[in-house]
Amino acid sequence: MTSPLSTATAQPEILTGPALWPAQAHVPSVLGRQIVIDRGDGSFVTTVDGQRLYDGTAGLWHANVGHAHPALAQAAFEQMNRLEQYHVFARFANDKALALAERLADIAPIDDPKVIFGSGGSDAIDVACKLARRHWQREGRPEKTIIVSREHAYHGLHAFGTSIAGLPFNREGLGTESLVPETALVSADDPELLARQIAEIGPERIAAIVTEPIQGTGGMNPPAPGYLEAISTICRENDILLIVDEVITGFGRTGTMFASERYGLEPDLVTFAKGVTSGYLPLGGVFVHPRIWQPFYVDSPDTPVLRFGSTYAGHATAAAVALRHLDLLDEERLLPRVVELEALLRDELDTLAARRPGVAEVRVAGFLGGVQLVPEIANDRVTDALVDLGYITRPLRGNTLQISPPFVTSDDEVRAFVRAIDEVVASEE
Ligand code: PLP
């Protein structure tokens, strides 16, 4: 017989599992169901159990040139045999970091930029936000500290990214509204509301507005008409820096090297990561406009210092791979290919939306697509069923599926992917 006391103290079972703590997951729901990838080839990956899966998301929007490209393996091998890494602190640098910065400066969506390197998108955002505050402090306007971002925004999970996230669950349980003080959220798509909100916050207090050109994790949302223009005007008229987060869109995802070109943006700071190496090695960074960097380069003992950098900033092997990767984008003509893929994806998804009542809306900008399902059909169930059929997609906010295959995919693969989505959605209708 169970005593009342033992019933009262019964505790839920603690699950065990692999030592690896799964990122961004409700752990009990994923334990025992992990999809463990063992190898990749082009647009496909294969699990340890031998299931070959079409990588319809390019991992986390990173594997643009496809998986296991021998040219990048070779570049890493050669560099590691020569010099794995040397830091870029103070007087030191390594030749690959210097060469990569020059090469990036030529293609950046800012003329004559300086390039700050880090290890990924989250630390690029941290540096960009710190630099924005530092800029206004140095300009004698220390009251300009607020970093404004958009609802549904995702800017990584370091301290600034967590604090400016427009996805509130990323701040859950941290003991405070925002890890970093003085941040504010504005409407993601309404230019008039945006203008009113900026007026309420007080433009004289705002250091920078941060925006993804196309919101990714927040649901694959291309900019609403007039919205990015409104942000640009507000920034220009109120001495507010414009930080464009091109972590997803940079390096060709929208058919131009950067989405800033596609949308006519003139940023002060641009963050990049993922596509700079197609994720072959962790690398990210920030392009800095001359009006921001020049004061730090003045020949005077009073010139301020920007405190940034990490052991792996400007990592020599990551830089060597990035240099080779930039060649590949040209050699394999991948940017023009993205333009073709955008048109194909738009046709395919429009047809899907017209055929399937379970599809509420489709959105395409560049080779980035979102399939929003009606509320009765859960996107995570569809994602699971697609894996069973051999296709990887990913549930995003707003009951949306992420569509962003590698640039090296074929037309037939894209068509087969959309057919598979059609089949699964039909079975859920
Ligand atoms: N910014 C954007 C727009 C992103 O989509 C991401 C990651 O998905 C990040 C920043 C963070 O990049 P990372 O995961 O490399 O830290």
TrEMBL record:
<dbReference type="InterPro" id="IPR005814">
    <property type="entry name" value="Aminotrans_3"/>
</dbReference>
<dbReference type="InterPro" id="IPR015424">
    <property type="entry name" value="PyrdxlP-dep_Trfase"/>
</dbReference>
<dbReference type="GO" id="GO:0030170">
    <property type="term" value="F:pyridoxal phosphate binding"/>
</dbReference>
<dbReference type="GO" id="GO:0008483">
    <property type="term" value="F:transaminase activity"/>
</dbReference>
<dbReference type="Pfam" id="PF00202">
    <property type="entry name" value="Aminotran_3"/>
</dbReference>
<keyword id="KW-0808">Transferase</keyword>
<dbReference type="InterPro" id="IPR015422">
    <property type="entry name" value="PyrdxlP-dep_Trfase_small"/>
</dbReference>
<dbReference type="InterPro" id="IPR049704">
    <property type="entry name" value="Aminotrans_3_PPA_site"/>
</dbReference>
<keyword id="KW-0032">Aminotransferase</keyword>
<dbReference type="InterPro" id="IPR015421">
    <property type="entry name" value="PyrdxlP-dep_Trfase_major"/>
</dbReference>
<keyword id="KW-0663">Pyridoxal phosphate</keyword>
<comment type="similarity">
    <text>Belongs to the class-III pyridoxal-phosphate-dependent aminotransferase family.</text>
</comment>
<protein>
    <submittedName>
        <fullName>Aspartate aminotransferase family protein</fullName>
    </submittedName>
</protein>
